[in-house]
Amino acid sequence: MDKTLIKELEEQLRRISFARPEYGLPALVPDGIYGSETEKAVGVMQKRAGLLVTGRPDAATVDAIRGEYLLAEADSSPGKPISPFPYPRYRAKVGERSEFVLLLSAVLRAIAGRYDACAGVGCGDLYDERVKNAVSEFQRVNMLPVTGETDKATWDRLADEFDRLFCNKCSDG
């Protein structure tokens, strides 16, 4: 096996070790050198897959490790982000009823601990006075033009705030 393929295998084993600590894999440092730690990790994966434990990566072993790696990647990814803002010049405002407003309301409710007016927002798809007041407060605190309407700049700042509060727990092994 060449150094590049060994390093790729080690990277996959390292990801698996972080995603599946119960497997007891060593946390490899991918260096492309097939040493005792790599051999041990390969042996563990062979045993888990019900293969002959040799510590050497044959085709069946490489396939099993690749399958576990893909599962580990899927399990440890934060999920695909969505882009719900309709179009750049769009402005959500009082009286609108839409799926976007429903999502906006959910985001406002989620950040309510930091913005008092957000606590009064309901779980609905109607842009009412409570939503307008929450958006206005958010705009004021974040030094955006206070219009009470949700434009792209306001939405982007709301998304950043939401991510800062709830998505920074995601980390890479």
Q: How would you describe this structure to a colleague?
A:
With 173 residues, the protein is mainly alpha-helical. The protein has 2 domains: 3-76, Muramoyl-pentapeptide Carboxypeptidase, domain 1 (Orthogonal Bundle); 99-166, no CATH class. It has helices spanning 3-19, 36-49, 59-76, 99-110, 129-141, 152-166. It is rod-shaped and about 70 Å long. Mean pLDDT is 91; it is low at 169-173.
Give a topology summary.
Elements: H1 3-19, H2 36-49, H3 59-76, H4 99-110, H5 129-141, H6 152-166
Helix pairs in contact: 1-3, 4-6
Name a few traits of the molecule.
173 residues; mainly alpha; Muramoyl-pentapeptide Carboxypeptidase, domain 1; 2 domains; 6 helices; 51% helix; disordered C terminus
Short description:
The chain has 173 residues and is mainly α. The chain is 51% helix and 0% strand. The chain is built from six helices and no strands.
**DSSP E strands, number:** 0
**Number of domains in the coordinates?**
2
Mass-distribution shape: rod-shaped
CATH topology grouping of the largest domain? Muramoyl-pentapeptide Carboxypeptidase, domain 1
* Amino- and carboxy-terminal Cα gap: 25 Å
Average pLDDT value? 91
Oligomer: single chain
Task: Describe the largest sheet.
Answer: none
> Radius of gyration from the CA trace?
24 Å
